[in-house]
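Try this one yourself first.
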């Protein structure tokens, strides 16, 4: 069931490649505006790089949250998935995993390239990729709860932002903190451990909360 849902969502995403490209281009444009506006001040660019890249990744991931369940809800597929004998949280896990692969993995792969604009050292670029690789699942998992709660509501995109942005703050702090610690020459391990703990907690609780929210929204 999990494999089928992931494969189905990946196939549908490939047919709507413009949605993926819009998220990637938004991330690149937002990150690139800061070096252009600030100028070639190396120390200043390095100091703001962690926060800028992580905030841009956070905002870019939110662009696709509204489509996580909306398309399946409109054509009735979501109701059929909820009626299957399989646990609903497995359905949620499959859709969140597909969303992470489609919307977050491209940002992780592009992050080292945009990081070069801030003159980030090579060692720190690996920490940036690692922090995004650990932290972006948190964004997808928490975002799925907001997407399920606002399913079918008018202006759902704005409501999702209001619901999930406060919950994104720990991931933002720990992810940006790991990169900043590497730039400052200290160990990023504590921040990465806390970010990994956030990912584990989100993986445990978010699918159950999303499944309950989907039942409420569909009913």
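Now uncover the answer:
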């Amino acid at each position: 069931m999990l494999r089928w849902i992931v494969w189905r969502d990946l196939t549908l995403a490939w047919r709507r490649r413009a949605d993926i490209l819009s998220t990637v281009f938004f991330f690149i444009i937002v990150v690139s505006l800061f070096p252009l506006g600030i100028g070639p001040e190396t120390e200043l660019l390095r100091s703001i790089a962690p926060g800028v890249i992580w905030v841009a990744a956070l905002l870019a991931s939110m662009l696709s949250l509204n489509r996580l369940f909306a398309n399946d809800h409109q054509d009735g597929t979501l109701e059929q998935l909820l009626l299957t004998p399989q646990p609903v949280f497995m359905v949620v896990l499959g859709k969140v995993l597909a969303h992470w692969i489609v919307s977050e993995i491209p940002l992780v792969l592009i992050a080292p390239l945009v990081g070069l604009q801030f003159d980030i050292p090579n060692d720190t670029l690996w920490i940036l990729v690692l922090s995004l690789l650990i932290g972006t699942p948190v964004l997808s998992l928490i975002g799925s709860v907001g997407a399920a709660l606002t399913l079918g509501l008018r202006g759902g995109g704005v409501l999702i932002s209001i619901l999930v942005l406060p919950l994104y703050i720990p991931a933002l702090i720990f992810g940006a903190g790991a990169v900043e610690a590497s730039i400052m020459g200290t160990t990023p391990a504590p921040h990465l451990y806390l970010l990994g703990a956030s990912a584990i907690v989100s993986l445990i609780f978010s699918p159950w909360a999303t499944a309950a929210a989907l039942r409420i929204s569909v009913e």
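Discussion: The radius of gyration is 18 Å. The chain has a mean pLDDT of 87.
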